Amino acid sequence: MSPDPRLRAARRCHNVLNPFHSTHYFSPDLAAEMTAIGIEDRNAAYFAARAAALGAVGAGTVSSTFYNFKHDLVARHVPAVWRTASPETVLAARARAVDATLRRLLGAEALASAELAEAAALALRATEACTRHARPLYAAHADLPVPQEPHLAYWHATTLLREHRGDGHLAALLAAELDPVEALVSHVATGKGMAPKWLLATRGWTRAEFDEAAGRLRARNLLTGDAELTLTEEGAALRAALEERTDALDRAPYEHLGEAGVARLTELATGFAGAALGNGAFPADLIGKAA
User: What CA–CA distance (Å, rounded) separates 9 from 259?
Assistant: First the structure.
């Protein structure tokens, strides 16, 4: 973790905000809404839902802003998906899916609670210090209106904070000279990343390409020589430095919110993320090294 206690607190807050945003990606509600507007393929639905805020962009823009997806997979679905449904139609479908997902995972009482309204207000206050330059996914989502309902406003704010940090993280990956597959493999090796079976099913890379990336990391002495995906001391240091650089690039919204605000938002966000996790928001085998 970053040595600065404020950055450590900011990362802890991010770690409970990010899952709340991500609940809809694994939701049957998103699949149903996308199917209803003609987008039946799971990968096409993901690209459309996450990229729609950018407008009817091409595959190059999606590949550059998503970073770790194989361009061939992106190009298979983008820009063709916009001929099936416009970005505006996709955004409306995504909003319906998020609403249904949160109602199912949290329940009516939580959605109507003062705590959720407070979390939305705190998270939106943090976004006031986010910056648009060199942050395309954040900037695109920042141009969208803030929903009126507290649970959707909170989800919108978590999306802004997630994409703001994510855009900065890509800059850190470039500086660390990790290509898209190497970034995935090294994250798996931390034990905190998405399991290889999920990466191979969703990112478009083959097992051979995944293994070749592991070989390149071993050649850089970032992974040990055995068959397991285990970071060397140098590899662990690189991943730690990468996260610390990401923390530094993402400090502004949490400094703006202040120490007490970050602590309170973390407390509230932990409760809502925990409830979503407890109600099956994510597959049980999503995280880990198991193939």
Answer: 8
pLDDT at 289: 78
Residue count of the chain, please give it. Answer: 291
What is this structure's pTM? 0.96
Task: Express as a percent the part of the chain with pLDDT over 70.
Answer: 99
**3-class SS of residue 223:** strand
- Contact call for residues 166 and 137 (beta carbons, < 8 A): yes
* Chain CA centroid to CA 104, Å: 21
Angle of helix 87-106 relative to helix 150-175, nearest 10 degrees? 110
Which of 18, 34, 2, 8 lies closest to 287, judged by CA?
18
Helices (H), 87-206: 87-106, 108-111, 114-127, 136-142, 150-175, 180-189, 196-202
Provide the CA 172 distance to its chain's centre, in angstroms.
Answer: 15
pLDDT (tens digit per residue) in 245-267: 999 999 999 999 999 999 999 99
Alpha-carbon distances of 9 from 2, 19, 243, 249, rounded to whole Å: 9, 17, 13, 14
